[in-house]
Design a protein that fits this description.
This protein folds into three domains: about 40 residues, no CATH class; about 55 residues, no CATH class; about 100 residues, Metalloproteases ("zincins"), catalytic domain (Zincin-like). The chain has seven helices and eight strands.
């Protein structure tokens, strides 16, 4: 029994009867479900790079289109049918490789993330009465944000796909680490001072988050 990027594979010698294989699967069911869950979580976040695909920004859907040979990300509710019909406003002679699309979308995300997060960090830093911290975007696979001992804050660019309330929570959380480098009661008191609804945000982030990181 093996789980890799393409899922679960079961191999057995031909002479083993089907019902015996089924019995083994049943005995191993818990293990299989656990592994498949982990597999699903690790593979579900991969963004797809194609024209007309939907990309989320601040919890809103945007669609990738090409108008007059220019790539654009447009709010989905402002798209008119002729904008995404083949051989219309989109010139059929324009071909974009998946790599070009990826480059365009990631650059857009980074730009949006930098602008939004700089703004929100400044807002919450002022609420806390601290100066604007040094901030970098991160590409971590396993965490939304971090704050190191020198007070440098890293925020995952993928956060920009989520509603602002969740981005704000991560920012408030990391800023609170400037005072408490742990998750003690004192730490959560600092968080609550600038972001009182933190428990709800934590729950939502846990639910949405495992689909994205
Ligand atoms: Zn923390």
């Amino acid at each position: 029994m093996r789980i890799n990027a393409s899922g679960l594979t079961i191999s057995a010698p031909l002479r083993i009867p089907q019902r015996e294989i089924e019995a083994i699967l049943q005995r191993k069911a818990d293990w299989i479900i656990e592994k498949l869950d982990a597999w699903e979580n690790s593979s579900s976040n991969h963004l797809e790079w194609r024209l007309h695909a939907v990309y989320w920004l601040l919890g809103e859907p945007y669609q990738l289109i090409a108008l007059s040979a220019q790539l654009q990300l447009v709010p989905q509710n402002s798209i008119k049918p002729d904008m995404v019909r083949p051989c219309s406003a989109e010139s059929s002679s324009t071909q974009f490789s998946a790599q070009q699309l990826e480059h365009f979308v990631l650059a857009w995300y980074q730009q949006q993330a930098t602008a939004c997060m700089t703004d929100r960090l400044a807002f919450y830093a002022e609420k806390l009465g601290v100066g604007m911290p040094v901030f970098h975007l991160s590409n971590a696979r396993s965490r939304w944000g971090s704050c190191n001992a020198s007070g440098v804050i890293r925020l995952n660019w993928r956060l920009i796909q989520l509603p602002l309330a969740l981005i704000d929570y991560v920012i408030a959380h990391e800023l609170a680490h400037l005072f408490e480098m742990n998750h003690s009661r004192a730490f959560w008191e600092v968080v609550a001072k600038i972001y009182p609804e933190y428990r709800r945000a934590q729950r939502e982030l846990k639910q949405i988050g495992k689909l994205m990181i």
